[in-house]
Specification:
Protein name: tRNA (guanine(27)-N(2))-dimethyltransferase
Structural class: alpha+beta
Pfam family, one: TRM
Strand order of the largest sheet: 17-16-18-15-14-19-20-22-21
Distance between the termini: 125 Å
CATH superfamily of one domain: Vaccinia Virus protein VP39
Catalytic activity: guanosine(27) in tRNA(Tyr) + 2 S-adenosyl-L-methionine = N(2)-dimethylguanosine(27) in tRNA(Tyr) + 2 S-adenosyl-L-homocysteine + 2 H(+)
Radius of gyration: 35 Å
Organism: Toxostoma redivivum (California thrasher)
Main location: nucleus
CATH architecture of one domain: 3-Layer(aba) Sandwich
CATH class of one domain: Alpha Beta
Amino acid sequence: EKVKSNNIDVKIPKSELEAEEKGAEEERPRESDSNILDVSSDYPRDKHISIQRRLADLEKLADLREDERKPCPLCPEEKFKACYSHKLHRHLQNLHWKVSVEFEGYRMCICHLSCRPVKPNLVGDQTLSKMGAHYHCIICSATIVRRTDMIGHINRHVNKGETESRFITVRAPKSSYEVVKESATDVQVLPNHSTPQKTDSYFNPKMKLNRQLIFCALAVLAGERKPIECLDAFGATGIMGLQWAKHLRSSVKVTINDCNENSVTMIKENCHLNKMKVKLNIREEDNDETVGNGEENSDTIEVTKMDANVVMHLRSFDFIHLDPFGTSVNYLDSAFRNVRNLGIVSLTSTDISSLYAKAQHVTQRHYGCNIVRTEYYKELAARTVIAAVTRAAARCNKGIEVLLAVALEHFVLVVVRVLRGPTPADNSARKVRYLIHCQWCEERVFQKEGNMMEENPYQQLPCDCHGSMPGKTAVLLGPLWSGALFNTGFLRRMLLEAVQYSLDEAQPLLKTLVCESECTTLKHFSTHSPGDENKQEECGVYIRTPNTSAESYLVHGKRKSEEVLRSTAKRQRAEHSAEHPPFYYNIHRHSIKGMNMPKLNKFLNYLSEAGYRVSRTHFDPMGVRTNAPLAQFKTVLMKYSTPTYVGAQAEGPVHLPGEIQVGEEVPAAVAIKVEEADLAEDDESEVSATMFTQPYPTHCAAD
């Protein structure tokens, strides 16, 4: 028959046309059975001939030739000459079919055709291209030489969720997705959702506590003013924004953003899975399941596909959460540019190696901060992040108030309230200082304010290590945030929200944070502090609490007059005069060799009885936050420690010399003896411990 193509008559044998039609009729039912659809207009090409379902399909390609001797469809004639059908069947089965790679019912057979040129060989003036055996990928049309590499290549496609082929559209089976439920919210994730470098839908179940704390902070802000516009700048699966919209409903207008197209597609699917409507951008196409820009609905989530810096530059928000992979310093300037007054910015930093002083050069590069590994390294990490936040806010003429700072094993979470104006910006910038840290005894103190150089900066440290030890004993760390890390009133309201929404994992941590902010023990914890019985004030905003009187009122994010702001600032200074002391001591780090320490809760009572403020800290399970100097801390610890060896006196407190009482300053000589006892050998430690456990003779005291 004649077929007219591009104004040219082409003669095609009738038998070939019938064979092609017959093959096409056999292909259609097989494709429908395996949920593999034909290609859209974007991918008009057909699959490669080496990709077949059955061995018989390969033989049919050779049957198109009417000769008795049939060539191999996957080998050039110089490699395999035409032969009879029984030899061809054995060749196809042994050389091509047995070493094929299977995927979704298809076999990717090895191909010897001139599809993949290898390095050319120069012979005289001619260039001969040597061809090699290879596989054709059914998904991305890549040519790969080794079978093991081909299997790994297909597995990487499956893990990334890339199952749409250039040749055929392979629909990902339902079994390849996992549905994870958290806080009454369902999300679909890929099998490798816990590996951020290799997946577009990163979901970490260990960050559940982080998500609950951020939700509580947003719920508190939603109680101050409604509705609020909140942004999840790095959506991934959209789990966080879905929880906001599902529980807070009409109080929030949620925007979930991600720059990855596959992540945006999964966010939309998860919205439909949770019966939420999706509001798309004007640029995106509308369909039946989306809501136009004119419609407003409490169950509507806006999904955007932009760079996080771009979306924060274009729009204003009341609440912004940043949770990139690694450091978040690259997005701070954009976050503070358009955030509204008295709004909240929360950021989760997962670059633990740099913040926890394992990669100090990275800390210097990202945060412009010099740190070393100390016993209080987690609090050092939180103050490093807050210092970077403070500088970014000050560049936008904004100040901050730290509401919450948490540093756990996997992340550092910082939540700050934004105060617009140059005066709050200056006040916040003044709280960024350097820290003087003694490397011998781990005593620390913030450098005094001022620009004048001191003749001997070691005088600011309470310890006497510089005078008794050779060389330089202290290092300068920072710049760090020197202000408070917690706001007690905000934490109490977060605890109420956690109880209301049954967030069980966040409640114990919030109770610890409240006690840490007030520097009290847990047995003195109460839901409402006595100082806040009538009203709570934060940043010039009065907040109603369950025990507030009718005189309290609520300001919906409006700026007050200058007189009211001055009066509230005076009250704030009075309230913050008793803020928690910076840093903490690890009781194991300062234990005495050869002595048993008292229980931690008992030791807290002993320090409290000595007249010091004391509390536990979430940064370290064996840490003690107190305003006692390190020398007094060691004195109380030594007094109530008991010896571990047999034959000593009955268990009881260790008696100190008569001249030294708890609550008084310890002379340098006694402190040096304690240090020598810590560094002594095992046999010498028993002797020194006996000396400390028994009272001094009267002649020794007189000497």
